[in-house]
Write a structure and sequence with these properties.
With 452 residues, the chain is mainly α. The chain has a domain of 204 residues. Helix content is 75%, strand content 0%. It is built from 14 helices and no strands. It is rod-shaped, with a radius of gyration of 51 Å. Keywords: Membrane, Transmembrane, Transmembrane helix.
């Protein structure tokens, strides 16, 4: 009996030590699971934001690539059209020049024939004595033919020189004018927008997305705006005025406020107590349904909201409750988020460590695929912006085509008023001189052989 009495304290001490070790291991295991779940949730949130930013960037780049390809295609078509128009004008003027050269050569030949008739085509002496009218008509027709052919040669020479000058000088002026118009076109704001890269901010620097991709300690700190509000209030921009970070719990402090990574005193009241463990074991042995009071305890009162938030919101028993609150805060603007924090009872319950089943249900429903879909608003903004660019660019293209049409009209005007009259007069005089020479030939034949 004495041996049993002496061994009983040792057994009790060993049992107490093993029980404490087991309780500590369970506590650390639960806290480890909680941290893993919350880290996973923060990582999923950051991955979602990064993926959303990547998809938006990809859509933007793809749309701008298509627009740039269309712009380049329009420029290629416009350049080819310009080249074709200029080649057409040049070919037409070269044909006009070749026609003038042909008229010049034929005029020279016919003029040589007229001088040969003047030298060799003498009428008989009897015609000069008896038919003076025929002699006068012959020499008049021959003289008119020579004069008309000489004037036609002069017009052909002028046309030839004018066409050459127009091709060289006017086309050079047209090319210089087009080059200046192209330079002015490329300085337009719309053209510069369509042909320059767009600076895209990463998700960590974006003014709306940077909150979603911050570190886990930052997420934990911003999940406790209720504690900061009770401690001294917070500003609209997320900066807390009048709050001493050293007086706040470690997980609520800002990331640069101290060594909160080594300060784990906030884990003191986390996990299940021995009374809760015994209560749960009794309920499981008796087969009664439901959970222990630790899981079904009601929301804390408003008087101890700050203390409950400090102990439960960031690292309480409800896994992911703090990030659910931070996700709600990040999904709204700053003013609405502050209003919802102070007025929404459901968020206050979750923030204060409410029903664990509700928090878990919220964790499950928060990962549905529809929450992970990219927002179509960014794509709509990109499409509207690119549509505006395209409309402005089409206006610029019409402006450039209008100037090209004016230049083409000017060249056509030069061709019609500067070259065509000389061509028409040269051909008309050539036709008249040839007809007069033909009439003189008829008079010569009649004077030599027709009077017998």
């Amino acid at each position: 009996m004495e041996a049993l009495a002496s061994a009983a304290p040792n057994v009790a001490v060993d049992f107490a030590a093993q029980f404490n070790e087991h309780q500590r291991a369970n506590h650390l295991h639960r806290e480890g699971l909680t941290q893993v779940l919350r880290l996973h949730e923060a990582d999923a949130q950051a991955a979602k934001e990064y993926h959303r930013a990547e998809v938006k960037l990809t859509n933007d780049q793809h749309a701008r690539g298509i627009l740039q390809a269309r712009v380049q295609h329009e420029e290629d078509i416009d350049i080819e059209k310009r080249g074709a128009i200029r080649e057409n004008i040049r070919d037409e003027w070269m044909q006009l020049s070749d026609k003038a050269e042909t008229v010049f050569i034929v005029n020279t030949l016919v003029l040589g024939t007229a001088f040969a008739m003047l030298v060799e085509g003498q009428l008989p002496e009897s015609i000069t004595l008896h038919q003076q009218v025929l002699m006068v008509a012959y020499f008049s027709a021959l003289s008119a033919a020579i004069c008309l052919l000489l004037v036609s040669v002069r017009f052909a020479m002028v046309l030839r020189f004018r066409v050459q000058r127009t091709i060289v000088e006017e086309m050079r002026i047209a090319i210089e004018t087009t080059a200046r118009q192209d330079a002015a076109f490329r300085q337009k704001e719309c053209y510069r927008k369509c042909n320059r890269p767009k600076v895209t901010l990463p998700a960590s620097d974006h003014p709306q997305q940077w909150r979603h991709v911050q570190s886990f300690t930052w997420q934990m700190a911003n999940a406790s705006n209720g504690v900061r509000a009770e401690a001294g209030g917070c500003g609209a921009s997320g900066s807390h005025v009048g709050v001493n970070d050293e007086a706040l719990p470690a997980f609520v402090r800002a990331p640069d406020a101290g060594s909160q990574y080594q300060d784990l005193r906030w884990l003191a009241d986390a996990g299940y107590s021995r009374r809760h463990l015994l209560g749960c074991s009794r309920r499981s042995q008796t087969g009664s349904g439901g959970c222990c009071g630790h899981r079904n305890r009601p929301a804390p009162k408003a008087a101890d909201a700050a203390a409950t938030t400090a102990g439960r919101a960031g690292h309480g028993t409800s896994a992911g409750a703090g990030l659910r609150r931070s996700e709600t805060l990040l999904s709204l603007n700053s003013k609405r988020s502050e209003t919802s924090i102070r007025t929404d009872p459901s968020s206050r319950t979750t923030m204060s460590g409410g029903s664990d089943s509700e928090a878990r249900q919220e964790d499950l429903t928060s990962q549905l695929p529809e929450d992970l879909e990219a927002s179509p608003e960014d794509t709509d903004e990109v499409e509207e912006e690119l549509d505006d660019f395209e409309r402005e660019y089409q206006d610029l293209l019409r402006w450039r085509r209008r100037h090209d049409q004016q230049l083409q009209d000017r060249l056509n005007h030069l061709r019609e008023n500067f070259c065509k009259p000389w061509d028409a007069m040269s051909q008309l005089l050539f036709f008249s001189g040839t007809s007069s020479l033909l009439l003189a030939s008829c008079f010569l034949v009649f004077g030599r052989y027709g009077h017998y």
